[in-house]
């Protein structure tokens, strides 16, 4: 303490002395005269300046010598580390300076300079956790993955830096495409720091890609617990994971478990269409028609979707077209003017052979917003009203090249999917699919679940739900059995008309 105070006082005295000398030199016109022990010296201003600088250097040298002598005195008095601390102080100063410069180089994107500074800092500092971390990050920046991974392995050996090391190696494995090893490392890193948000996100994505739905739900719960996820987002994503568990249970021929998981998914997110459909079909299998109606109605209020209409038709499979049309009013009344509602009504009227009513329900959708479904319905209407084959074929020709209409589209990469999935098959994004019109035309000419769900799908013999993975796949399987689904819809309408005529 005393020695530090002494150095401060000495520094202030030197500054005062230099100020005085500088002032004297400025006022002196012919130089400076100095008298020492009866001897008189005359110095020019330049000579006086050089002498002042020399005195300053001498003072600094004396200060360093005094510091070293104090360290020697402490050593003599029994402080065994006094001299070593004196020299280490200088080494630490150089080391931390190099470390600081390396971090600045890293932040500036100068990876090679950061590597040089990291090596210098490592020579002067006994701080392997700091220097190794700088070295690893700099090696990553210049693309030297081997060096980065080797340094991260060194960090793993130290309990204080183990998490950083494990996470660093995990990132290396992800970059190399080794997702299996990356998953194990992510689980290890999560065990070390369960509240680390980035580790949670990586682990959740890897678990979802690996279809470890149970593990993903635990990770998601940890995100909520540590405040890294809003509750509403948590409920939605947990619903997606529960629905994925339901599909997996169906594949494993466990219908009861599938129904329980589907009900849980629907409870968490009533507007999740695939969950509502799967839940409703489970209720139908258990003869719980009212429950199925309630689930589908609530989902339709949130988002009209053709799969909801298909499932709603399955509640009473043997009803007449008139009965079905009347019953459907309970489903679609929440959105009477929605595009999906108008298309559903048009299909229902076609099955009831009321083609003028079908035309009124369709309105101008075929002209203003033409797609496969609206144009196909228009062709069926024209056929049912007795229009010429040329007119009908004209509508069908337009349908072949028309936009496919809404599809399951990934919001991250805009890739299309035939049915809903929890993880995008193209970019592996989780819960990124939405039912919407694709941003660009697609070459996909296959008819999906959104095409004629009532004209075709409702009239098909429904297979056991346990054989399907998704609602889109279930409808596609039914449609693929037909040689031409579009013409089948028209032929079915014509067949019904012929039967009615024969009876008369």
Give an account of the 3D structure.
There is one protein chain. This protein is mainly α and 504 residues long. It has a domain at 95-211: Alpha Horseshoe (Serine Threonine Protein Phosphatase 5, Tetratricopeptide repeat). The protein is 69% helix and 4% strand. The strands form 2 sheets. The protein has a 3-stranded antiparallel beta sheet with strand order 4-3-5, with no helix packed on it. Strand 3 (407-410) and strand 4 (416-417) form a beta hairpin. Helix 18 (355-362) runs antiparallel to helix 20 (372-384).
SSE blueprint and pairings:
Blueprint: H1 2-27, E1 32-36, E2 39-43, H2 45-76, H3 82-107, H4 111-124, H5 128-142, H6 145-156, H7 162-176, H8 179-192, H9 197-209, H10 213-225, H11 231-251, H12 255-268, H13 273-285, H14 289-302, H15 306-314, H16 321-332, H17 339-351, H18 355-362, H19 365-368, H20 372-384, H21 389-401, E3 407-410, E4 416-417, E5 433-436, H22 453-457, H23 471-480, H24 485-503
Helix pairs in contact: 1-2, 2-3, 3-4, 3-5, 4-5, 5-6, 6-7, 7-8, 8-9, 9-10, 10-11, 11-12, 12-13, 13-14, 13-15, 14-15, 16-17, 17-18, 17-20, 18-20, 20-21, 20-24
Strand content: under 5%
Briefly note the structural class of the backbone. Answer: mainly alpha
Following the backbone from N to C, one meets helices and strands in this order, namely HEEHHHHHHHHHHHHHHHHHHHHEEEHHH
Provide the CATH superfamily of the domain at 95-211: Tetratricopeptide repeat domain
The DSSP helix count reads: 24
Given as residue ranges, the uncertain stretches (5+ residues, pLDDT < 50) are 445-449, 457-504
| Mean residue pLDDT | 81
Helix content: 55-70%
- The end-to-end span amounts to 117 Å
CATH topology of the domain at 95-211: Serine Threonine Protein Phosphatase 5, Tetratricopeptide repeat
List the strand order in the largest sheet. 4-3-5
Please summarize the sheet with the most strands: 3 strands, antiparallel
Tell me which CATH architecture of the domain at 95-211 applies here. Answer: Alpha Horseshoe
Any idea of the CATH class of the domain at 95-211? Mainly Alpha
In angstroms, what is the radius of gyration? 40 Å
| Shape, principal axes of CA atoms | elongated
Number of strands: 5
């Amino acid at each position: 303490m005393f020695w530090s105070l002494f150095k401060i006082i000495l520094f202030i005295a030197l500054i005062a002395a230099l100020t005085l000398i500088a002032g004297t030199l400025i006022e002196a016109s012919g130089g400076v005269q100095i008298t020492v022990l009866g001897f008189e010296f005359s110095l020019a201003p330049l000579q006086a300046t050089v002498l002042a600088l020399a005195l300053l250097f001498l003072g600094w040298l004396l200060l360093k010598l005094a510091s070293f002598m104090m360290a020697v005195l402490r050593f003599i008095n029994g402080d065994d580390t006094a001299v070593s601390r004196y020299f280490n102080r200088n080494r630490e100063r150089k080391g931390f300076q190099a470390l600081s410069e390396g971090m600045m180089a890293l932040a500036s994107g100068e990876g090679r300079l950061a590597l040089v500074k990291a090596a210098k800092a490592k020579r002067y500092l006994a701080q392997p956790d700091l220097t190794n971390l700088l070295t690893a990050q700099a090696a990553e920046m210049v693309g030297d993955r081997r060096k980065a991974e080797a340094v991260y392995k060194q960090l793993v050996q130290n309990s204080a830096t183990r998490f950083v090391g494990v996470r660093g190696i995990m990132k290396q494995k992800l970059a190399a495409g080794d997702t299996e090893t990356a998953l194990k490392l992510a689980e290890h890193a999560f065990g070390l720091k369960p509240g680390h948000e980035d580790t949670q996100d990586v682990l959740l994505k890897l678990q979802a890609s690996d279809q470890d739905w149970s593990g993903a739900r635990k990770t998601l719960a940890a995100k909520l617990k540590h405040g890294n996820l809003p509750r509403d987002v948590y409920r939605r994503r947990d619903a997606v994971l529960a629905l994925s568990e339901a599909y997996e249970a169906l594949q494993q021929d466990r219908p009861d478990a599938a129904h329980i998981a589907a009900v849980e998914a629907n409870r968490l997110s009533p507007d999740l269409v695939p969950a509502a459909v799967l839940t409703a079909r489970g209720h139908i299998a258990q003869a719980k028609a009212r429950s199925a109606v309630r689930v589908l109605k609530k989902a339709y209020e949130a988002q009209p979707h053709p799969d909801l209409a298909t499932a709603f038709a399955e509640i009473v499979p043997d009803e007449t077209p008139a009965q079905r049309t009347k019953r459907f009013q309970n489903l679609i009344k929440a959105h009477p003017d929605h595009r999906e509602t108008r298309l559903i009504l048009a299909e229902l009227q076609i099955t009831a052979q009321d083609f003028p009513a079908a035309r009124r329900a369709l309105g101008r959708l075929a002209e203003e917003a033409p797609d496969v479904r609206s144009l196909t319905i228009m062709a069926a209407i024209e056929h049912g009203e007795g229009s010429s084959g040329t007119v009908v074929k004209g509508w069908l020709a337009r349908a072949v090249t028309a936009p496919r209409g809404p599809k399951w589209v990934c919001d991250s990469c805009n890739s299309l999917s035939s049915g809903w999935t929890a993880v995008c098959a193209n970019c592996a994004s989780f819960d990124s699919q939405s039912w919407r019109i694709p941003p660009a035309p697609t070459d996909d000419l296959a008819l999906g679940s959104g095409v004629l769900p009532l004209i075709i799908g409702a009239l098909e013999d429904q297979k056991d739900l346990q054989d399907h993975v998704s609602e889109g796949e279930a409808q596609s399987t039914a449609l693929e059995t037909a040689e031409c689904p579009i013409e089948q819809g028209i032929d079915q309408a014509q067949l019904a008309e012929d039967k009615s005529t024969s009876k008369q």
